[in-house]
């Protein structure tokens, strides 16, 4: 069966034709989404979403307006861009645990990165747990003070006082 016949059957909601088109294009579509959002798991989920949209919108494909693959790519690209703009994507990126970054600098053989890693670890060693958590949220995860206050269920004034105290402790520890 040629591509035109396959697309025609797909537009008639033939599930076997849909499966063949999926097998034909899924890797390419997942790859395009991954290039845009740079998250392997999420790109696979979005790839599934794209094919669900394609199934739902099968009647809207018009052969005179362009190739099927181009139509499919446009849906995938728009879905990936929508994901990048979404709040859930931004929050997912913010809420990655610090543990996922441990060892990233150590894998690099550059001496400068190793020195920075050692310096950061020693500065955080002498701090209270509340300080480490607050510094993690504000400086490593990119939270604003207001967002950190909401996350920790603490008044913003307390957050400001704590961060000032924590920074003072870091300065004192670094002088030792």
From TrEMBL:
RNA polymerase sigma-70 region domain sequence ranges: 21-88, 124-172
Organism superkingdom: Bacteria
Single GO molecular function: sigma factor activity
GO biological process: DNA-templated transcription initiation
Signal peptide: none
Gene3D superfamilies found in the cross-reference section: 1.10.1740.10, Winged helix-like DNA-binding domain superfamily/Winged helix DNA-binding domain (1.10.10.10)
UniProtKB keywords: DNA-binding, Sigma factor, Transcription, Transcription regulation
Family: Belongs to the sigma-70 factor family. ECF subfamily.
Protein name: RNA polymerase, sigma-24 subunit, ECF subfamily
Upper classification of the organism: Bacteria, Pseudomonadati, Bacteroidota, Flavobacteriia, Flavobacteriales
